[in-house]
Amino acid sequence: MHDLTSQPITMIDSSPPLQHHYGELTRLPPQIPTLECNDLPSGGAVMEEYCQLPLIDLSCLNSTNERERLACAEAICRASSEWGFFQVVNHGISPELVRNMRREQVKLFQTPFDKKATCGVLNNSYRWGTPTATCPKQFSWCEAFHIPLSRVSEQACYGEFSSLREVMMEFAAAMSKLSRVLAGVLAENLGHPRGVFENICQEINCFLRLNRYPACPISSEIFGLVPHTDSDFLTILSQDEVGGLQLMKDSKWVAVNPNQDALIVNIGDLFQVWSNDVYKSVEHKVVANGKTERYSIAYFLCPSFDSLVGSCMEPSIYRKFTFGEYRSQVQEDVKRTGRKIGLPRFLL
Questions:
Q1: Is the dihedral of CA 218, 337, 234, 165 positive or negative?
Q2: Degrees to nearest 5, angle at CA 40 with 38 and 46
Q3: Residues β-bridged to residue 151
Q4: What is the mean pLDDT of residues 241-252?
Q5: Which conformational region is residue 250 in: left (phi greater than 0), alpha (psi within -120 to 50 degrees), or beta?
Q6: Scanning 75, 164, 215, 302, which has its CA 20 to 30 A from the CA of 311?
Q7: Residue 265: phi, psi to the nearest 5?
Q8: Alpha-carbon span 200 to 194, nearest angstrom
Q9: Strand, helix or coil for residue 145
Q10: Which of 284, 273, 279, 274 is nearest to 345 (CA)?
């Protein structure tokens, strides 16, 4: 085991003191049963198997050919059932907008760590590592800004990062539009109007998360982001060319090759509940990279905290619950056990 606490913390650096915190965890006795800390797969295991996610051309949804439109919608729904993940191209978000958003994101993350941690930018949403971790396998080697879209238009949220505001507002609006197109296709497949999610998931209830995964000198031992499912309806991910995303397919981890022209879409827990398990919320993780930092941006399609979530068909296999109740239960489970238990708690 590396002696990770012997190195000084340099606060003027842009990276948070991840190595120091990880080193402290290696010296702590487990606060929960040993099995909880040891039964997760290694975060840095070399993947020998790569997957090609279903790749869907969304321009076909607007085709004048009805057969093409139906085939595109069918491909979205099939991928959501069989994979829980898929990629989309010709999605309507311009490469220039993605580049501008990435440029502003990099500029923000290159700010010295102590400034990011204390300046309160973006609704004081900065976070790093895993504060609830009680052993190394529960620790994520990353930093992020998790931003409620209800605040993205407020100038006061940006402080000196004023150039970020206009780009983020445009990017959030584009991701919001795309998420509703996809959710509409998935809803229609189950016999509901395409616009059903307009009221369920209003834009002010959704989130953007800006992620940075610094290069990790101990990448063979650690996750960039621990295995989890998403607690929303739908997630859309824009990632760089570095790679590191892995998902659970047929009871094994497979790595996703990055595609610079595509956005990645995955089903969240709430859509699995709403669809009565027709669509699958699949466990995924990020593997730390020993040499290169990685950037990504995720959009989360969410309802309000007091929205009631239940199956759109009967008999339901889940009891009804509010989004706020679900989030609270997830946070309680993570704090108590170090991991998300999620949907099994809400089965009837």
A1: negative
A2: 115
A3: none
A4: 93
A5: left
A6: 75
A7: -120, 135
A8: 12
A9: strand
A10: 273
